[in-house]
Amino acid sequence: MKEAGCEDGFTVKIGFNGDVRNRTAQIIQAQLAEININVDINQLEWGAYLEMLKAGELDMYILGWSNSTIDPDRSVSTLFLSNQCGYDGNNYTFLKDAELDAEINAAAINTNHEERMQQYRDIQAHLKELAPWVPLFYQQQGAGTNAKLKGFTYDKNANFYFGNCRYEE
User: Fold this and answer.
1) Coil, helix or strand at residue 19
2) What is the mean pLDDT of the chain?
3) Which of 52, 63, 86, 100 to pair with 154, CA 20 to 30 A apart?
């Protein structure tokens, strides 16, 4: 903090919605207090939270993301393209990087699978350098079933599918 010229500390506003994120915000608040950063916690109703995200009124936020299409473009274009900031999309970090935009746009139209996957690996490396986010955790869903339950499957998005379930003796 001293090297950054912030040895006296400062205050940031963190926003979120939901109880699990409240506990996460409290942990972040306690950890940042150790280096003299005061975290103002704002638990908000979803509509108010979304409005503050789109308006760029939060210094920090806690939010989840899942990619329902499985295509990597959905996770980068929506979240990191410059034209997706605020009210135009889901780029709530307000990251604007022309080089990243060019990389994302080129990968989105590439029809060669191997080249495209390499482009997305390069995009991930670029995002790691830019560090617009600090990922906290990756939540996975698991399921246990009785051996007599047949037809239970995950769909391609790793969601549970119960439509063909039946019990057999």
Assistant:
1) helix
2) 90
3) 63
Residue 116's closest CA among 76, 67, 66?
76
- Residues 6-36 as b or e (16 or more Cβ within 10 Å = b): eeeeeeeebbbbeeebeebbeebbeebeeee
CA–CA separation, 141 and 71 (whole Å) = 19
Question: According to DSSP H, which parts of the chain are helical?
Answer: 19-33, 46-55, 72-80, 98-109, 113-130
17 near 46, Cβ under 8 Å? yes
Question: pLDDT by residue (tens digit) across 1-25?
Answer: 999 999 999 999 999 998 889 999 9
Q: How far is it, in rounded angstroms, from Cα 116 to Cα 124?
A: 12
Q: How far apart are CA 42 and CA 130, in angstroms?
A: 26
Q: Are 150 and 167 in contact, with CB atoms under 8 Å apart?
A: yes
Give me 156's structure tokens. Answer: 């391609």
